[in-house]
Amino acid sequence: MLIEQIPRNSQLWLFFALLWALAPHTSHLPVWVLGAGAVILIWRWQIYLGRWAMPGRLIKTLLVLVCAFGIWRGYGSWRGVEPMTGLLLVGMLLKLLEMRHRRDALLVVFLGYFAAAAQLLFAQLIFETLYCTLTFWWLLTAQQLLFSGPTAGVKPALRRSGVMLLQALPVMVALFLVLPRTGPLWAMPMQNHAARTGISDSMSPGDVVDLTKSGKLAFRVNFDGAVPPPEARYWRGIVLSEFDGRTWRARNYDFNPGGRGVDRSNQAPSSWRLLPEAARQGAPRYRYQVLMEPSHRTWLFTLGVPLSVESNKRWSITIDQTVRTLLPIADRQRFEFYTVDMPVVAEQLHPFVQRHYLSLPPRVNPRTRALADQWRATGLSKQALIARFENMIQERFIYTLQPPALGEHSVDEFLFQTQQGFCEHFASSFVFFARAAGIPARVVTGYQGGELGLAGDYLLVHQMDAHAWAEVWINGEWLRVDPTAAVAPSRIRSGLRAAMQNNADLLGDPLSLMRYSHINWLNQARLQWEEVNYRWQSMVVGFDGDRQSAVLEKLLGGMEPWRIGVFLLLAAGAPLALLALWLAWCNRSEPLPPLLRLLRRIERKTGIERAPGEPVGQYFARVERLLPEQTRLWQQFSALFERGLYDDKNAEAVRLIKAQLARIKRQSAGGEKPINSP
Amino acid sequence: MAAWLRWPRFFNYVDVGFMLSAFSAALQRRFRNWVNRRIRPARTVTLGQRNLFIFPSASGWAYIFTLLLLWVLGTNYENSLILGLAFLLLSVFVVAILHTYHNLAALRLTLGEVKPVFVGERAAFRVRIQCKAGSGKGQVLNVGWRNEPCISLSLTGDEQDVELWAQSDRRGWLHPGRLKLESVFPLGILRCWTWLDLDAKALVYPRPIASEQAPWADAEGELDAHFQRAGSDDFVGLESYQPGQSLRRIAWKQFARGQGLMLKQFAQSEGQAQALDWHFFEGMDTENRLSRLCHWVLYLDQRGLPFSLALPGQVIPMGQGDSHRDRCLTRLALYGLETRSAD
């Protein structure tokens, strides 16, 4: 058996394609693996140049150990996307080092396909997709060079594989549209080490300010109806109800008093208590799709509370009527919501729970407590207390992204000394005040506002839209109170950028396009790009089973197998059939020159075939011997053919032969004997 | 006990391996018969749907496995783009079927003249492979007879000759069988191949074996003295070559010096005509006799002596020159194998 060698000309290209496939992974690969990879590549290069020998077993074992150590050290675990990808890449590199035969090289190429695809586990923007497609092109070219013999050039191979990719594209689109999405076959490990972004489940002074420096997208929302006005865009995310004097924290969800009157529903929407139907009439309802950017957290953000749950149960509703996913959001995901923006009814709080929403850490903020006691003593109603507080901050307080630092009694210092702060300061101090005044209250964090997309039917919510506000329990329902709105109404109406018009330095990164949004054309370009990205995300990346059925319904008017079969046949079969026809057309035999065609006619008529390679003169001499009574005719033909073959006046000879043949035909039709009868 | 549980016992009594091999042999036989029916013998063959077969190669199955794994990856992470890549690989596979087929389709193979050889030599079959000019077809072809090593080549122009060898082991007609032509170009994942019957055969002359005694009797019944010193030393001079004369006597050394084609002249070449006779080698078996006769035919031809050849039932009259020699050798090669005379 012949051992298939790796063509030398293909090796260089293979190196290039693999480096190209590896490049996007360098950002997450541990240093040890990168080092080993560099050694491997250099070694292989030296083998290619014929300077070094293949590495011995000792060195290979050493490299394996270094890589394994690197992965274990760098990721701290074997599970997860990154260690898996790391192992894959290490395997590819090691195979590259020890490849000898063509099948080894082929295996490296196949692993390269995986490495390219693994890139898309980390990011799925248009750029990454284009990059990955290029990787596939390079790898297909490398694969082709492996089978193209030792003299093949890279350029024709590149052209051919490019052509094949283009021809495969329509078929791929058809398959992409039609082939059913089965959903995960088994659970896969998710990313371990990705930085969590966005709002967290705790809030200390300064947390939200940090977020507002980021122009990164948090999520996109596509509304089925009109987009709600800015004042109504409170994206409710996390309820924080535990306070230690400095930091607000979400309630531990194991805590479930289980008492009467407590809303225990974290699965079924039917058990929430909403206001009676009549009272619900005016409450705005929204139907929308949220395309979450990967946050590696489990929080989802909704306008109010959901009225229905998703069929595939990726999320559930917590005891605080917020929405949490079951798994951290590691990639862009689409969620459908149908929510109503109205107070959540809890008619009566269990005393235990009420205590929770009134609890304050002892001995902090004595002045605020005193103020609350003092105001309460005047006999004001709860609403009036809240109004008075809002009035107080509205008159004297300043909304700023650069609040002075706060000490031990943060609320006291904020309310009575600095009086400058950001939404978190306002929300935090308000809730503290309300609790001190005997009103059950809690902090809610999420996003407020959002930028209208170019098409006008979707919203872009950025990290800088992060916001904190409060909810108070009055008359059996949780009411939203936003003290920030009292201080900086423009923040609510037009967003942070408008509120901070004269303070643009605060918008963080000088490279962030958000910073230049006052430059009109740049802003237009940014929004255009966002638009393209949004379409990409929603139509391609987010093309899941649900969306597939919707598109196919619309496209085919039904989901019956025959419709899909016919569609697949047309969409995938037609380009292939066209290609096959074109190739067949390329293969058609060339038409014979006119003289040879005439000669064939004579051969058919006489029944005497010309031997392969027999000269015309010799042929007619043979015909003359076999059919002697037309001697003159054959000599004539012979002369004409010779003239036609060797003379420039080819057309003239063809014309004469044709005329002669026509004459014979007329004669035989007129009752004379045909030429081949002896 | 359920009936299906008793199945293994059935295998105790039946030689499964034998059954399987018999089954596969039967399958192969059927396939060969089908190929025989489908691809008829012809000296010139154009490749097309009638005679080309295509199937995934071993690498092709690995490729399919790879794209399946990609599909699983995409499905489990619900990653549309990775699914798209898996579909892209699948589509490339489908498109590659057309490309692999197109690489061979419409190629024309023509078997050229085959020169006779002596037993033990390898016969050269020259096959001309042609394609339409500029079509870029015929990349990385593997061509070879069944049971012989393949030759790998790529068409650079619109036609190329390839010489295929077959080992001869006995005189008569050598049939190398069907010609295999295959290619995995461009991606190596699909194998397109054909088994062509080019009606290839080569004439194999008997192996020449020198005998001590010349096969003709002198008047005295002794061997002529000059035959005992048969060899180069009876060379006497050169004469200029005339077309049709035996190439065996060409003086290549002189030709290489640029003196033109010359024939070596040997002493006694003006000697008397000889009659070669089968019956001279009494007591030998057929093959040995034929080998001896073959040697003397060559010997006499080399010296330009006229000779006749008598075999049981056939006599070739006295003659001289290449065509006479070839006729004699052909009779020797086919002696006893063909009933009908070709002359």
Structure description:
The complex is a heterodimer of chains A (678) and B (343). Chain A is α+β, with helices and mostly antiparallel strands and 678 residues long. Chain A folds into three domains: 8-147, no CATH class; 202-251 and 259-521, no CATH class; 594-669, no CATH class. Chain A has 23 helices and 19 strands. In chain A, strands 1, 3, 4, 7, 12, 15, 18 and 19 form an eight-stranded antiparallel sheet that branches. In chain A, strands 8-11-5-2-17-16 form a six-stranded antiparallel sheet, with helices on one face. In chain A, a hairpin with a 4-residue loop joins strand 3 and strand 4. In chain A, helix 1 (8-22) runs parallel beside helix 5 and helix 2 packs parallel to helix 4 (81-97). Chain A starts with 7 loop residues before the first helix and ends in a 9-residue tail after the last helix. The model of chain A is unreliable at 254-279 and 504-509 (pLDDT under 50). By secondary structure, chain B is of the alpha+beta class. Chain B has two domains: 39-205, no CATH class; 225-233 and 268-334, no CATH class. Chain B contains eight helices and 17 strands. In chain B, helix 3 (58-76) packs antiparallel against helix 4 (80-104) and helix 7 (286-302) packs antiparallel against helix 8 (322-334). Chain B starts with 6 loop residues before the first helix and ends in a 9-residue tail after the last helix. Chains A and B meet through helix 5, helix 6, helix 7 and helix 19 of A and helix 3 and helix 4 of B.
